[in-house]
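Hello support,

Our group uses your service weekly, and this is the first time we've seen a run hang past the timeout. The protein is Ig-like domain-containing protein. I'm not sure whether the cause is the sequence or the server load. Input pasted verbatim:
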Amino acid sequence: MTLAAALSACSGGSDAPGSTGGGSGGSGDGAAPAVPAPAIKISPATGSAKVRPDKTVVVTAANGALEEVTVQAGGETLEGEFDATRTKWTSKQPLKPSSRYTVSAKATGQGGPATATSRFTTLKPKVGLEVVDVTPGIKGETVGVGMPIMVRFNAPVQDKAAVEQALEVDAEKPVKGAWRWIDDKFVIYRTAKYWPAHQKVKFTAHLTGVKAGQDTYGVEDHSTTIKIGAAWISSVSTRTHMMVVRRDGKVVKTMKISAGKATTREYTTTSGVHLTMERGNPVTMISPGKKEGDPGYYKEVVNHAVRISNSGEYVHGAPWSVGSQGRANVSHGCINAHPSDAKWFYDNFHRGDVVKIVGTDRALEWNNGWGFWQMPFSKWQKGSALEA
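Update from on-call engineer: The timeout came from a worker crash unrelated to the input. Re-ran successfully.
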């Protein structure tokens, strides 16, 4: 009887004080099932090798929310973002090739905190893409408002859209612009209108991890800050034989000039929008395609020469033609000026300043030197890999 009474007392179930309400599958004493700790999953999994740099790092949490995710390699942290519920974290940028990554994650939930770690390595690409030259890129240089940004790579780019997407131009005074691919290693950025004067422009190539082609990945970023100076714009008329120089719209110099005599095409000054490219003092000029003794051969040493095309055109001093300057065109195609005027121009010019020439029947080709402004912007944009 005593045993039976004891069994009867234990069978009260849902009527006993502190009961959970008669749930099934519980422990014999009526306690609630244990809540599991958060389960964290990381991809790539620990130990993974030769992971592609364009692989996305993904961290997820079940039974809880992610509190913190850190992905690092070589002291650099990979950026990423959580979803709205903080149960998923996704990287936002490519991985760096030939690197060892460590992923650390923390999560919290009703079942308590949890941590997880993954270590993996990225592959070494057969071809590592990097920027080998940016023009302009001389430290401390001030350039003109017509200056393009010219970028050369060390290897051919197959996926031009992916690489172009990684090229950023950030101007203090933004203006519309576009990239145009000249060949597989060379791309140029030109604005639709001249740069607004007096500002800084930062160019950044976010190349690290970008897949540029088969077995080709960007291996490092590149950044250059460009200083745009005053708007120096020179207007040349081969008909009036005059050159007017304006700085920020104000006339600062008027010069008598003599242009190409136009007896042949090569002696005809090109009309169009030129950019100043480089300078020399002195520069030796030799007739193209001729040797000493040939008719029309010349070899002249000129002072204070500023190049405006690749077809041999300069603005330079010409003491021998002072009598023709302002009156007649007698040069081999250059813009001849009085020695003092040429020196002034030489001393004041910047690469990328604008020289507009009118009055001849020979147009400057868009790819003659830096004649990029000769191409309409609507056509220029079509050279972009991102244009539809």
